């Protein structure tokens, strides 16, 4: 009876000693790995903060441009395609997160090898492979902890041959530049809408925005936490106003016996006009206009290039997929409701920038909706920071310090990343052309092709 009690106690004692040894060694190796980090993640953030940043990015231009794309492709086709792209984007976003963890684990393993070389444990007869296996069993959080913010381009540099990682950088630069151009055009148009026509000088507006956006682009994403929450609250109010405005226009036009988007199809009946399926004045499906929808959808859900910036600082690295999933699901639901009310109100006559469709509403509400693109002030620095970090990695320049200290190299890189898109906004206002070129081609490759290849070779 006594022997049967002693054996489990002895095994438990051995297990506790193994746990203590594994925990001690993993802490030492983790500290050694932290010392070799090139781009530290900086201050930590919660899952809620990451979700808010993700929502600010996915709802940046989506509420402005997707209603027009739905009017072109149809409500049913648009809903299915938007959900399909959302699912694909989430899957490939987890590929980026997994690659980020694997490359951080590789740094841990390098530190692990260095620790065993330095220590005398192996000389005393300890089993090195056994200790490594013990650490992975007892403390996997230490092995796969994200210690370094590795941008997507830097991931490619570490695992790809010379030509392929430069192709990846080219796609990243062109897509991010296109996103910033879209944001710049929307911001300039929003500011000009508040100014009297006789005093609205586009050059002055561009300079004013540059004075605001450049300082915000000098810091790390964590430093923008308060701004992200403030803008998210204002964005939520504006989206509610867009949805409510669409319902109001639809209800008043029906009550008055007229519709903004007239159709010969009787209300309640589905009719095909060539390749276009209509239900009353609401387009249901038009496959010929699918390219317009796909480029706008990619622009909404392609946040992969910025993922390391806002998931690396999470308190627990394992929460990264959850943060991305929540932001995608909420964004999909909001965009679907917004597009549905837009088609109900305007049919096929939704303007390219949906916030400009409410001139018949009270002036206060109209001004609020016209000012919706100003919420991009919270997204613009996040994307500019991603472009800056990738540019510095490409040139071999050390990234900004994690303590927030700004050096001349950081200022110049931030200026190169954030100012040229404002110059583009000075000379053009055609959002859809920019979206088709930069999001439709380069963004699609970053959302579907490159994450798969990165995870395969990581």
Describe the structure concisely for a colleague:
With about 450 residues, the chain is mainly α.
Order of helices and strands: HHHHHHHHHHEEEHHHHHHHH
Count every helix, treating DSSP H or I runs of 4 or more residues as helices.
18
Strand content: under 5%
Q: What about the largest sheet?
A: 3 strands, antiparallel
Envelope shape = globular
- What's the count of strands? 3
Helix content: 55-70%
What is the CA-atom radius of gyration, in angstroms? 26 Å
Largest beta sheet: strand ordering: 1-2-3
Structural class by sheet pairing and helices? mainly alpha
Give the termini separation.
Answer: 54 Å
**Averaging pLDDT over every residue, what do you get?**
80
* Uncertain regions spanning at least 5 consecutive residues: 1-15
